Amino acid sequence: MFKRVFQRSRRVKDEAESDDDTDPMVLKKKVEVKENSKVETDYTIHEVIGSGRFGEVCRCTEKATSKQFAAKYLKAGTEDERESVANEITIMKRLKHPRLLQLYDAYLFKDEYVLIVELITGGELFDRVIDENFDLTESKCEKFMTEICEGIEYIHSQNVLHLDLKPENILCLTPNGYRIKIIDFGLSRSNAANLRVMFGTPEFVSPEVLAFDPVGPPADMWSVGVICYVLLSGLSPFMGKRDADTYVNIARVNYSFNYSEFDEISTEAKDFVKQLLIKDPK
């Protein structure tokens, strides 16, 4: 099955789903930060639909068009916070692709940024993994992986590294479909020689990040391999009882397919994961 995942000319998709899942206007829109301007001038803010380390996300409606979006609130009280959000905006402005969450507008007022992004209502890919009523077969996994790899291929073609890929940062466009958007570019960086980072999510971080070695596209592809393992089995390949145990497993590339969840998984799918979970790829 997985032989088609990296073939750009052959896409695996559900027949009921359309390629036109991103408004062309959103993809073409040039975004400039509107400083000293309140988001409420142009948008009606509705209920909170999410929250995280960054702040809250609210549903909103653009007054001029009546189109719905999501408003992501980000603190910018310190110089570090401002630089972090400015970097996220710069990265998102460069990434114009249907498989990536698109930035539509941006505001800075006093000590707070508000990013206006596409409103995605299908839930996190993580929700599919833990949903006992959703039968996540190898065939369905392949469809998700094709979508994810298409997005990552584009990100890397723009000389950008995501650096925090995980099921929670992949949104499904619909509750039952396979089309996705990669989100959260808060930790993303422009790819550069000798780029080193010391952040990420423990279960999905690559060995070179742990070792504070230079990182490149293989760091993201390692995370893609972990995501694929999780989708195929519902298990996390490196997770230990503590983060320290998880880091040791990652550093030693200590994982296994010797679980009943892999009994019906093809050799080809396992090989796909193996080709991504490689330490010190050259």
Automatic annotation (TrEMBL):
Question: Boundaries of each Protein kinase domain copy?
Answer: 43-282
Which keywords does this chain's UniProt record carry? ATP-binding, Kinase, Nucleotide-binding, Serine/threonine-protein kinase, Transferase
Basic residues bias located where? Answer: 1-11
PROSITE patterns according to UniProt: PROTEIN_KINASE_ATP, PROTEIN_KINASE_DOM, PROTEIN_KINASE_ST
* Residue ranges of the region described as Disordered: 1-21
Write out the GO MF terms.
ATP binding; protein serine/threonine kinase activity
Q: Which SUPFAM superfamilies match?
A: Protein kinase-like (PK-like)
Q: Which residues bind ATP?
A: K72
Which InterPro entries is this protein grouped with? Kinase-like_dom_sf, Prot_kinase_dom, Protein_kinase_ATP_BS, Ser/Thr_kinase_AS
Q: Which GO terms describe its biological process?
A: intracellular signal transduction; positive regulation of apoptotic process
The yes or no answer to whether the keyword Kinase is present is yes
Gene Ontology cellular component annotations, sorted alphabetically: nucleus
Q: Which family does it belong to?
A: Belongs to the protein kinase superfamily.
What is the name attached to this protein's record?
A: Protein kinase domain-containing protein
The species this protein was found in? Macrostomum lignano
